[in-house]
Structure formats: C-alpha cells, structure tokens
Amino acid sequence: MSVSLGEGRTPLLAAPRLSGRFGVEVWLKWEAANPTGSFKDRGMAVAVARAVERGAPGVVCASTGNTAASAAAYAARAGIEAAIVVPEKAVAGPKLAQVRAAGARIVAVPGTFADAYDLALELARREGYVGVNSTNEDRIEGQKSAAAEIVEELGGLPDAVLLPYGGGGNTKAYARGFAEVAGRLPRLHPTQAERRADTFASAIRIVEPIHRAAVEDAVGRSAGAVVTVSERELEEAWRAVGREEGLFCEPASAAGVAALARGAAARGERVVCVLTGHGLKDPGRVAA
Predict the structure, then answer these.
(1) Angle formed by the axes of helices 169-182 and 145-154, nearest 10°
(2) Structural domain of residue 85, as residue ranges?
(3) Does the predicted model carry a pTM greater than 0.85?
(4) Tens digits of per-residue pLDDT, 103-126?
C-alpha cells in the first residue's frame, strides 16, 4: 500500500552568499519543502504504509515536534489512529497545531524526550500500535532517499554533508543512502547543540541520542566528526540562512551552517547543509 502526500524530490539550492562567506561551495538541501514542512515525511510515508499493511489500528511516537506533525498527517492520510507523546512544554506551538489539525491524540508527559519515548513504547504494547520513531527501520529506509537525490542533483558525491544531530536517525539514514547509491560516504558532520537539554533549537532538544552508536559508526567510516555548537553560533547561522539566502528554516535546521562557521569544511570543498524543517514550525525566535 502507498501512503503519500507528495514527499521527497526537495530542492538542492546553491547558496552563493554563504559560499562567499565561508570560502566553500555551499548547497542547501531544502527539506522544508516536504508536505508537513520537515524531512520526517520521507520516512513516515514508508513507516505508516507498512503499519497499515500489517493491520495495525494506529501508530504512536514520542516527539519534540516534527515527528509528531508527520505521524499525525500520514496516519490521517491512511485512515488510522495516531497517538503522539510529547515532553511537556518542550514542543513549539505550531507543531502541536499540525498534530491537532490532523486529529491525532496528544499525550504530554513531564520530563524529557526519553520519558516520552518510554511511554510511547508502553502505548505501542498496550494498544497494538506500531511505533514510528526512527528506531523503526522503515523510517530509515524512507529517509535515505535524500542521499540519493543529492548524488543525482550534484552528479556525484559532495565532499561533506552537514546536518542537525538530535536523535541521530537522519545521520544513520544518509550514511545508508550514500553507501547504497555511491558505494562510499562523503564526510559526515552531524551537528549538535552544546545545550542539548534546553537549546532554543527545539527540534534537536534530545539529551540522549537514540542512534548515538550508529552516528559514531557513520562518522568514523566517513572520516567526519560530530560538531558541537553554542546557542549563539546556532542563532547566528540561522539568521544568516534567512538574511543571506532567503530561506526561513527552523533554528535546528541551521546547525550544519553553524558547523561551517566552526571550520568543518576546507576552502574550495563542495558541501551540502541539510535544512531539515521550515521556520514556520518554530517562529518564536524571530521576534526575540
């Protein structure tokens, strides 16, 4: 069964001003062009379709926002239930609005993403739902398609790919996708917030990355490195993306650009920064 809202085939945009600023050839993978405004839709389309094939009455996930919006939308598209478990007061309002618009059930829990994830596992067991966090391999299979698109659009591998690092599932997916389509990896630079627990970049506000081992493996195989950036570096990069390239991304999406400012790429290299979500999902910082 196919459950699609038109995800994938997102633009890869040249970034001439950022290229001039950093002395590298910068390309921006604009994942905000996906149906619910984030990269999560690639994997969710596959995960929800396979849940339906297995006869599941619904899906469940823990989320800091983007997974929630995507799971709710694709469950509605498939005609099944969705339960969304979120850490209390940790999710941007527009993302919760997307969940409500799709008619999903929201369960808020005190504590962190890890607490929400534990409850999501319990709900999956109790109600027979399929868990659609990135620990579901169907999610990774869907998300790896972005790597194939980059290779096709560039006509080969970039020197480096820089992307936000929250739970780490997207790094795992890109590594798998590049290995399958090109037989090798570009240098991978997953970029995390120094203040994981309370960063203003809410999409990567995950204290314990579920895919830490897979990220370390991918980084090692690619000769890359995990980059850690401050709140100030994140904000400066986020504002630069908007003011210099005209793209309004959510703050977490600019993590890879912050890594560029940290020197993650050498002069003259061709790099791709993955902008994972739209700024309308987390617009509060604009007025700050």
Answers:
(1) 50
(2) 40-137
(3) yes
(4) 999 999 999 888 999 999 999 999
* Eight-state DSSP code of residue 249: B
When the pLDDT of each residue in the chain is averaged and rounded to a whole number, the result is 96
CB 37 within 8 A of CB 280: yes
Residue 268 lies in a domain: yes
- If one compares 281 and 227, the residue with the highest pLDDT of the two is 227
pLDDT of residue 287: 64
Cα–Cα nearest to 68, from 30, 106, 39: 106
Please report whether residue 4 resides in a domain: no
Decide which of 137, 153, 177 is a domain's last residue. Answer: 137
Distance CA 6, CA 106 (A): 25
- Parallel/antiparallel/unpaired status of strands 25-30 and 12-14: antiparallel
Q: How far apart are CA 93 and CA 28, in angstroms?
A: 26
Per-residue pLDDT reduced to its tens digit, 1-34: 789 999 999 999 999 999 999 999 999 999 999 9
